[in-house]
Specification:
Blueprint: E1 2-11, E2 17-27, E3 30-35, H1 42-49, E4 57-62, E5 65-66, H2 71-76, E6 78-81, H3 93-103, H4 109-119, H5 135-147, E7 153-157, H6 165-178, E8 183-187, H7 191-197, E9 200-205, E10 208-213, H8 215-221, E11 226-230, E12 240-247, E13 250-256, E14 265-266, H9 271-283
Helix pairs in contact: 3-4, 4-5, 8-9
The structure holds adenosine-5'-triphosphate.
Amino acid sequence: MKISINSLSMTYPNGKQALQDISLELESPSLVGLLGPNGAGKSTLMKLLVAGLTESAGTILADGAPLRKNETAYKRRLGYLPQSFGLYDELTVERFLEYMAALKGLHDQKKAVQAVLSDVNLEEKRRARIRTLSGGQRQRVGIAQALLGEPRFLIFDEPTVGLDPEERIHFRNLFSRAAQDKLVLLSTHIIEDVQSVCNRLIVIHHGRIRFSGTPQELIRMTRGHVCTFSERPEEDAALHITARVNTADGVQCRAVARTLPAYAQPAEPTLEDAYLYLIEEAET
Ligand SMILES: Nc1ncnc2c1ncn2[C@@H]1O[C@H](COP(=O)(O)OP(=O)(O)OP(=O)(O)O)[C@@H](O)[C@H]1O
């Protein structure tokens, strides 16, 4: 599947411009991470991609055809986990998923539900009412409904929120397996989620794309802008401190800066440093 986004802009009826002139090509197989601070425009982009909102300007093409032209056929090929997801609390996990499978028009609903229950490790909760589930288990039900029917394009808005570290690793691996032959787009605030599995990273800030490339490219761009040093009494406004650790030798700091001060030791950037530096630079 190939998604072509051309000069896409979105202004909400209240006048808030959430996206400005976005152009992107996304093609399967790929696992694309969408990063950006709160309010950057990630959810808006995802809602436009699932045809849940109408763009103010620009176009989105799926395999060369405008979304609206073949909307029903396009939606059949989609799996979507929105950021806030209304689950039917009184239904059991299994009934809810069968209901979603019916809405998706799947023929063998029982088989489809069994497959996704196993994918998300919720088989033993199949008969539990949704209201009795923990936050992480509810999130897994949300991921399960997105996976129903083997969609070609999976869109997950903050899928690992509420999951414990072990569950996050399980889902990262699941997304990575899905991306072997599908297009998977996931938004997250958790850098490790992106670092360990995404082959492409898109950073959005104030509705604009600030970076599109591999995580390694973003790290490479940040070389020469990361340093460590022992804390000094006076503050250096040109430095953006990303970590502060109390050690036996005093407080050790890590920072990003356009120009490193002479007293600091250069350090190899992590993806988190690179992301923070990009956002800091976009602010100035
Ligand atoms: N329905 C709406 N009406 C008006 N403004 C909106 C609406 N939805 C979102 N916005 C605004 O659009 C901007 C982008 O919001 P969006 O939810 O896309 O950001 P986000 O990157 O997903 O943020 P977060 O990480 O906090 O979920 C924000 O300023 C937000 O307040």
